[in-house]
Amino acid sequence: MIHLENAQFAWPNEHAVIEIKNFSINKGEKVFLKGSSGSGKTTLLSLITGIQTVQSGLLVVRGLELKKLKPHKRDLFRGDHIGYIFQQFNLLPWLSVEDNILAPILFSKVKRQKENGHHHEKVAELLNELSLDVDIKKQARNLSIGQQQRVAVARALIGNPEIIIADEPTSALDGDRRNDFMNLLFSECEKRDSTLLVVSHDSTIASRFNRVEELENINGGFHV
Ligand SMILES: Nc1ncnc2c1ncn2[C@@H]1O[C@H](COP(=O)(O)OP(=O)(O)OP(=O)(O)O)[C@@H](O)[C@H]1O
To answer: Does domain 2-223 have CATH number 3.30.70.1450?
Structure first.
């Protein structure tokens, strides 16, 4: 599903941040990628999601070599096939719970078609699955952190993208809520057989994943 080979990326005027000789994630795999602060985790996610492109080497996601796509095609690709959970959730504060959850399907025909026109039913179903008992008309800015997080998960899951990516999804949560959140994310991805990539420096959530990788180990492959 995701494959990097001799992939290199450097921010302008910096040494290479990403230098990965060989790294793959198979369909349906649940991978935990840890790494110290500044090791390049978010940079790697921006490559896998096509926000940035590798400067040399190969990065293939879902059979497509992303750097060969024009920027707007990469945006479409991301919207169609990836669900993203941000560290600070990035909900649109003035929009309602429902509109936040539905936002991805406004931008993606593929996700829209997968939900088959039953958008409002789908929102209700997701809220139920995620045990989120909240008025769907409530503005996102008036939600608690835990509620915001569940809305962020619902937004990532709508339209059943094949790949779910979460960047430090537990950083705003304390111990118990962290565990609950990971249980939820995991069971939702298992149900859908989604490929899950979670990036974090929090090793306490690592045990349930199929695979735990350390960015420092897979990165820098050019020099070993
Ligand atoms: N937009 C940018 N422009 C220039 N350099 C950047 C940019 N974003 C990140 N970097 C640099 O790339 C390196 C890796 O940053 P990145 O954010 O990918 O690390 P990280 O592992 O996600 O860190 P953290 O755990 O602290 O979030 C850092 O040295 C950072 O300064």
So the answer is: no
